[in-house]
Amino acid sequence: MLTLFRTNQLLFSVLLLFYAAILHIGVFVNPPSWQPSGYGFFSKLIYDAIGSNGLVPDILAIILLFIQAVAINIITANHRIAESVSLFPGLFYILIASALPEFLHLSPLHLANTFYIIALSELLKIYKKPSCANNIFNVGFWLAIATLFYPSYAIFLPLGLLGVNVLRAFNIKEWLMVAAGFLVPYILSGTVLLWINDLNTLINLQFTREYAFLNFRAYEGYEVYFKIAFYDLFLLIAIFSYSLYVFKKVMQVQKKINVLYWALLLSGFTLFFQAGIQLDHLLVLAVPLGMLISLNFQSIANRWAESFHLLILIIVLFFQYQEFLLPK
Which of 58, 86, 93, 259 has the fewest CB atoms lying closer than 10 Å? Predict the structure, then answer.
């Protein structure tokens, strides 16, 4: 199967839509009970309009994953993060972002990741670019939009600041540009809501209700630990593959890979202040993790890549259909 995605023709990206749809069939066959948690103001607007469960939200989740995967492929190709251009980064983003049944719904993290990817794209463009004030401003702007879907993405404001430092010489004015971009969506949203006398909703969702220290949803049984361990395996592979990723890469690419590692590190801090954490909170890792894991599969022989990919698929499908496969 992976051979189909080794092409460097981005027009073949439509295959990613079918791949995402196949991984999401389980949500239509055996729809589990699921409710979003920790969502921000913009997510609330979407849920109020189309609901959080059902055909429309679940199809929208597939479409979002497809669009995000295409964007990730473009980012990886434009910045030469991988040795060769292929559809692997988007493919493994979809796989990781669909790895658990709890990921298959229209999670607020799927919504937030759309704008997180845009912010990451803007950030990676600034390396040795003489005039990039608009890109630096946009980093903060799009990160703020992401937080309006899932508040704890505010942790990526430091990513914007650190990323500017990693990719360019320190300049306090550029930090202020990121901060200014981050403030603009809140100022605009707050002004509109103040005008219509609904500012308290924004304050409640973005600054009060959705923050708590180590606040996890209670799960019954040991199944949740197996799911977390399976997902954490990807994280461990990425962490211990750093030397592989940067080997023989030019300094520009090494610095951009370092930005992805900062993204992974900062993601962990969301555990300390996001309220009502569910398993879908692991999607906060999906963007950098999908990009990095794809590099592992590009570096190994085709037959081994096919075998490992097939094994991962079997485990993912087992999680989705375990109610039919295991005796009650």
Answer: 58
